[in-house]
Amino acid sequence: MNEVLQTISKIGIVPVIAIDDAKKAVPLAKALVAGGLPVAEVTFRTAAGEDAIKAISAEVPEMLVGAGTVLTKDQLDRALAAGSKFIVSPGFNPEMVKYGLSKGALMLPGTATGGEMEQAMALGLEVVKFFPAEDNGGVKKLKSLAGPYRNLKWMPTGGVNTKNMMDYLSFDQIVACGGTWMVKKDLIEGECWDEITAICKDAVKTMLGIRLAHVGVNCGDSAEAEKIAKLVSAMLGGSARQTSKSWFAANDAIEYMYKAAPGAHGHIGFKTNSVERAMYHLGRQGIEFDESSITYNDKGAAKFVYLKGEFAGFAIHLVQ
Fold first, then answer.
1. How many structural domains is the chain composed of?
2. What percent of the chain lies above the pLDDT cut of 70?
3. 94 cis-preceded (ω within 30 degrees of 0)
4. Which of 142, 177, 208 is the last residue of a domain?
5. Which of 114, 137, 239, 277 is the most buried (most CB within 10 A)?
6. Are residues 197 and 218 located together in one domain of the fold?
7. Is the pLDDT of residue 239 over 90?
8. What is the DSSP letter of 104?
């Protein structure tokens, strides 16, 4: 997948901005970055769109900025000149897609039907926008189309919000979701940067869904692990469960390892909706991962990883 698309996929959510005052573009971009969303689609629906892209590109280099509602060749040229890293349109215009590709642009045209999607694939596109997503059948429709279009991925936009985005993002053919809910017009006009940052953080937290999975304890051998697992299960209820490396107890809340694993005392496991997105977003906060510990699913996506180092004698890992 294209490097820009890979980054968009790791970020997971693309704010779609319609801005009337280009002077507000930079503080808005900084608010999005602070909230964990260093990407934005700035639409050409307003006269300030082009200047906003220029300002963000120049002053917030960590922001991956693209242009949206690009309908003409002139707009496309201006968007690229302003610094756009990707081009989004509401509908599918083959001539515009061909023109953009001839300019070396990353094109994300809007599609709503299988016919439009096939035409996009014929032009070599691997990701398209699905718009308006909710009005066109939502993720249920995309899952129905997934069979014949296994090599196509989508960025649904339109009607997506914090409450329903995981319906989309839990489907592996969704690259990211686009939305306006964190950048509503009144929030931008009122310069509510802290509120925008808070909304973004809430969306990222919901998307990652990080929660405690279990605590692992290193035991001397399998007999000791079995003994304590059955004891704890008797105390707390439930049955002990054996694996090739350990015994689980208390409805899998505690894992007793046969022998020492990473962590002097054991490990703490956390579940997440997406290991790859969690690694990206936690990495932006300075958390490092042991890349040698990563395991992958049959589609090549990370499903397990340890953080670097120990924490009070415990290792920490993320699991899909």
1. 2
2. 100
3. no
4. 208
5. 277
6. no
7. no
8. T
Least Cα distance to 272 among 259, 282, 261 occurs for 282
> Where does 103-158 have alpha helices with state H?
114-122, 138-146
**Tens digits of per-residue pLDDT, 140-160?**
999 999 999 999 999 999 999
Based on the residue annotation, tell me whether 227 is a catalytic residue of this protein: no
The predicted pLDDT at position 19 comes to: 97
The one catalytic residue in 129, 153, 226, 276 is: 129
Residue numbers of the domain that contains 303:
211-319
Nearest alpha-carbon partner for 29 in 189, 196, 177: 196
Catalytic residue (choose from 10, 30, 41, 226)? 41
> Residue 195: is it exposed, middle or buried by C-beta count within 10 angstroms (0-12/13-18/19+)?
middle
Cβ contacts of residue 53 below 8 Å, gap of 6+?
25, 42, 65, 67, 79, 82, 83, 84
- Let me know whether 41 and 90 are in one domain: yes
pLDDT grade for 228, boundaries at 50, 70 and 90 = very high
What are 251's two structure tokens? 């409805």
Q: What confidence score (pLDDT) does residue 243 get? A: 95
Q: Which two tokens stand for residue 289?
A: 């991962």
3-state SS, residue 204: helix
Write the CATH number for 107.
3.20.20.70
Active site residue 41: yes
- Tens of pLDDT along 76-88? 999 999 999 999 9
Q: What is the mean pLDDT of residues 100-104?
A: 98
Q: Looking at residue 261, what is its pLDDT?
A: 81
Q: How far is CA 261 from CA 136, 293, 305, in A?
A: 49, 12, 14
152-188 exposure pattern, b = at least 16 Cβ within 10 A, e = fewer = bbbbbbbebebebbebbbeeebbbbbbbbbbbeeebb
Residue 128 has pLDDT above 80, yes or no: yes
